[in-house]
Write a structure and sequence with these properties.
Shape: globular
Number of strands: 4
């Protein structure tokens, strides 16, 4: 896998209830994502990249699974993960 759009994943987390827009917004402890693959991992066709966890809630809009899947960029060539630290200060 080449990349994951973590910024967009953050905005999606707000939509499903595990993040907030305002301080008074309630957080759902059962909502979130379970990411199965890391950047640099080999991905076979049909493999699960991530799980969308909504607890007892209904999805706020249809096709949330597709929105989550669109955040992952899978390419045919091997790609090394980026370094964990870019610079030491």
């Amino acid at each position: 896998m080449r990349s994951i759009s973590t910024e967009k994943m953050g905005f999606l987390s707000i939509d499903i209830g595990c993040g907030r827009r305002r301080r008074e917004d309630e957080i759902d402890p059962a909502a979130g994502f379970l990411v199965e693959k890391n950047v640099g991992d080999r991905v076979e066709p049909g493999e699960t990249l991530a799980w969308l966890c909504l607890g007892d809630r209904e999805p706020p809009r249809p096709n949330m699974e597709r929105e989550l899947g669109a955040l992952f960029r899978v390419v045919d060539t091997k790609h090394d993960p980026p370094p964990l630290a870019i610079e030491k200060l």
